Amino acid sequence: MKFAKLSLAAIMAMGVSAFATDIKVDGDVKVYYGTTDADYNDGITRVSDTTGDMFGQNNSYGDAAIRIGMTAENMPAGLTGRISMTYLTTMGLEGRLVNGVWAGTDGNQNLDGIWFDEMNLKGTVFDKTTIIAGRQYLDTPMVFSEKWNIVSNSYDAAVVVDQHIEKTALVAAWVWRSNINGSTTVSNGDGSFNNGFNTFPGTGAAAGLENGAYAFGAVTSLIPYTTAQAWYYSVDSVADAYWLQADVKPAFGEGLKLVLGGQFAGTMVADSVGLKGDDATVWAIKGGIELDSGLKLSAAYSSSDKGDLGFANVGGAQSKLYTEAWWNYGYVSNPDTDAYNITAEYSWADVADFGAYYTHSEFNGNDGQAFLTAGLGLKTPSGKDCTMDEFTLTASKNFGAFDTAIAYIYTDADNLNYTIDAAGNKQQDSFNTLQVYLTYNF
Amino acid sequence: MLKKSLLLLSFALAAIAGEYLQLPNGKTVLLKSDGTYEEVTIVRRGGKTIALKPDGTWEEVETLEKAAPPPPPPAPAARAAAPTPKPEAPKPDPMAREIAQKLQGTWKSWDGKFGYIFKGDRVTFIDGRKKVSDTFKIEHYDPKTHTFVLNVGEGEKMGVFSFGGFYRKLRFNDDFTSLEDITSMPIPLTRQ
Which of A5-14, A106-115, A325-334, B127-136 has maximum average pLDDT? Predict the structure, then answer.
């Protein structure tokens, strides 16, 4: 008997022809640059002899990233496959034009990194139940992929989404690894091919951190003009959290919509963790209008009480609170903090998109507990009140496949750009930041 | 008996004998009745035409038929006028057109940070601070679940490969009043 030997390519071709698979190849190249005129670095040392020199090497940070991915739709059994790889690099500019990076530090000076940011299979069972397994980007209120940076963190996870109830999604997820890394978004790890993916939400088997985290959620738009969602998170033997939210956007006259929203969330830490054992809650409200002319105006207020844990993205920097700042993440989401935000955005057709954002937050000491948000660490003297003001102006425009944006950020924060002199007196000043975002999509 | 045998042999030879054909290139071949042919050399001797066969025998040729030359290529003008086969254009999918119509307008998530603005054959995709405007196509529409693939900004299609732009997977609800992005975790979108 003769056996026909088929190459892998031939088998793939057969599969392709039988199931009419389409494969999309996509990607982008990004170059981000930022510079400040801050005089001091974390209150410890002066930045350099050329203090406050915007565009100076010591006051600047930059990165480039290349991402290329493939999506295979309509694979056998109706599966969808997705694989994507990211390469993050300073292009060797550190020590020349810049001294800092946007993303991907791990304390070991591994400034460049390459990793698979997506590698998953998605399939549908029982008509409207979807299973996504593998490395993927997530978007839930307290576990999500942050998209503000040049690269985004992803998760090794299994997600089940059931949508048999009309306009409603029921979600169950198990997350066991991630490359999330505080304010630098991703960890470069050890330079190996599986860069930076560690157990989620952290390491430490004894503390139960290596067992992964579970999330359960329901998102519905059954109520007219309303999107409501409820989430519950569990890190086995470590902490639990919940997040409730409702957003209403009714039409209100010709070309005008109201925007109303409410958030309520809580975090609970197990006594075994060794913190004070205080649960914390936060509430936030938002109101605004949207005009068909492209103008959006909104104002939001949030208030959290004292507790062990804040409300930012677990392991990350940003939060989904309405009052979140445009750039200085980690302030509004702390426990024992009051904050408000005012946002104005205008999309000027055929010209550009413009934005103006103001955020004020007051951290009230939290009974002496230091800032807990991963992005901030312990930059401020523990237990001290901390006020932060940020005012940002942005302009962005697409030129074909090119996306461009610039941002100006004014920051005045008690824990930034300060020093303590020999006499023990604190000297602090506001500072300015300029950022340029360039993206080419291919 | 001998005469009878010779008669049968002559009939058999006649049956397998072929005809001589002169090709347009001047060569002559013997077409055999068994479907094969062989090239022969034609000489003239004493008013007779003789075919010299490769096996060393010869035979007198009674008739030498000339093969008709192949038809000349059409004149340039005729070539230009002749219809050329066109690559098969993709057939317009009426369902895709209908879905594209239903998509027209603005669809946003609860926080307005994710969504689509469809206008004619173009779409603006918004994802956080990312904003991309390009053309779109509707592919793989499933009428049972109302799911489809939104192929945005395709640069080139080579076989099963599509280069440039990106895919998003979307689903309408049963009455087409709400939309969900189901590329990864579902994001409910409402018409603005």
Answer: A325-334
